[in-house]
Amino acid sequence: MPDLTLERDFDLSPARLFAFITSPEGLLQWWGPEGMTLPESALDFTRTGPWFSVMQGAEGQRHHVSGHVTHVDPPHSVGLTWAWHDPAGARGPESHVTLTVKPAGKGARLVLEHRELATAEAATRHGEGWTSTLNKLARVLGENALRDA
């Protein structure tokens, strides 16, 4: 089964990055690819257990994903299972995502690992989605830094 690893460096401390990406307020701002909003979500990185989110595109298309938060290790990492739902609501193949925050130079590095994807095509699609999501995170963090200045 294919795996995917993406890394992105940010100009803030590892503790601040972890706090932002795992807070309910932060998740609403960055979770999902660019152009997507999060009108419904029960994603809680403060505890293990079930989660879901619905991502909505600009034209109203909705994408439902769910799983279980499998571990929470502040301020280092969180892990979750991941499965898309088809239009009838049936869950597809389950995979695993881990977000790890590490020191990097004067800032922090976010390492996103998405493991056990069903096919190479799924790995490619998830790679595109996660890359867009990390671009969105970088933009949101930049906007927040400007507001905090």
Chain-wise SSE layout:
Elements: E1 4-10, H1 14-22, H2 24-30, E2 37-41, E3 49-56, E4 62-73, E5 77-84, E6 95-104, E7 107-115, H3 120-148
Antiparallel strand pairs: 1-7, 2-3, 3-4, 4-5, 5-6, 6-7
Helix pairs in contact: 1-2
Give an overview in words.
With 149 residues, the protein is of the alpha+beta class. It has one domain: 2-Layer Sandwich (Alpha-D-Glucose-1,6-Bisphosphate, Chain A, domain 4), CATH 3.30.530. The protein is built from three helices and seven strands, in the order E-H-H-E-E-E-E-E-E-H. A hairpin with a 5-residue loop joins strand 3 and strand 4. Helix 1 packs across helix 2. It is globular and about 45 Å long. The chain starts with a strand and ends with a helix. 20% of the residues are buried.
What does the main sheet amount to? 7 strands, antiparallel
Strand order of the largest sheet: 1-7-6-5-4-3-2
CATH architecture tag: 2-Layer Sandwich
Q: Tell me the β content.
A: 35-45%
What is the residue-mean pLDDT, rounded to a whole number? 94
In total, the number of domains comes to: 1
> What order do the helices and strands follow?
EHHEEEEEEH
Q: Would you tell me which CATH topology applies?
A: Alpha-D-Glucose-1,6-Bisphosphate, Chain A, domain 4
Low-confidence stretches: none
Shape: globular
Give me the count of strands.
Answer: 7
Q: What is the CATH first-level class name?
A: Alpha Beta
The radius of gyration computed from the alpha-carbon positions, rounded to a whole number of angstroms, is 15 Å
Ends distance:
45 Å
Count of helix runs: 3
The CATH homologous superfamily = START domain
Instruction: Please estimate the helix content.
Output: 25-40%
Helical/strand content category: alpha+beta
